[in-house]
Amino acid sequence: MNSTAKKSLKIVGLSILLAVLLLLLVVLSYVAYLSVNYYRIRDYQTLAINNNKTEQVALDTAYTISTYNIGFGAYNHEFDFFMDSGTMKDGTKVSGSGSKAKDQATVLTNMNGALDVIYSLNTDFSFFQEVDVKADRSLFVDEYVMIQQKFIEHYSSSIAMNMHCGYLLYPFNDPHGSVQAGQVTLSRYAIDSATRRSFPIDESFINKFFDLDRCFVVNRLKIQDSDKELVLINLHMSAYDEGGKVRARQLEMLTDVIESEYKKGNYVIAGGDWNHDIAGSLDAFESQQEVPDWVQQITAEDIPEGFSFATTLNAPTCRSTDMPYTAGVNYTVVVDGFLVSSNVQVNMVENINTDFAYSDHNPVLMSFSLVKPETPPEGENPDEPTQEVPEEGTEDVETTNLFQSAVDSKKKEF
Hints:
The protein is α+β, with helices and mostly antiparallel strands.
């Protein structure tokens, strides 16, 4: 090899080395950027309640509550998500690719559609999850402002932030970007306090940058002519958790909280997106897909004595997002709904079937009453719950023709 060729080869080698070093520097700088911008919101954060109401809830009175994961306004039928993958029953592997909404018009259409659904239910309380405040993935539509504008006349509102990440460069062809998002609670009745509790999460390197800062919100409402409280908990548990280990820790934390409240004689309703099958619905709905690996179950053995899920199988509440949606093809399951203490009487529960028109979730509606405790016999502790634990099978609550009648009976004029 002559000297000219050796010199050229050396130049090429140095160029490759410099390119590799430059790439490494960029990667390390980006990781440093994510690390510097990463933090967890502190536990026991007190939330501001906007437009708080004054009327108190009462015993032996019917109320309605809904929960809806609105999927940051991106999920029409065509949208899939890059973090989801699955398997068809014929063995074909599928994987989502989308990271943000197609355009701002799509976000506005989905948000307006989702909010119209909840508005039409005219509930006393409403929970929302995946509400973007400022995010690339939703084209910077402030979805919390949209909720406030829709409901401000009749409801108080609060938001607990549960995603606050720096700019995520993945997927490389369409980065997810930066996200500020949270969980929203609406109420027609006075909320005495709202406290954000931080769930345990996967804090391993890389994973922590892509998952949410998971939390649940403890809303306390005073009850007329009672020294007890109604405790409403808005929650969103982890999804991308191999083996369900993090979710098990989250469930343990949550059950400790609700069990403590119940032992005080308080009325407890925990609702939202559990990211678990809560209704024995693993194979309940038609699908051409296998049960995804992420679907874990919560059973009666996993929850404290004195609690049960109020569920129904009239419709699924969550679809797979590893491919665009087609009814009867995508895997669907019930992961949204409410866990209630036995002193809360469930009058009706309905999964509102929107056919996933505005989100990868369907909303859930429940009617309930707070049962007045019986006077305990002399010598018994009046703070101990007096209601018997309902028999297993709350999911069999009759829903046919109850949905419309319950809504009609609660209807108020706006």
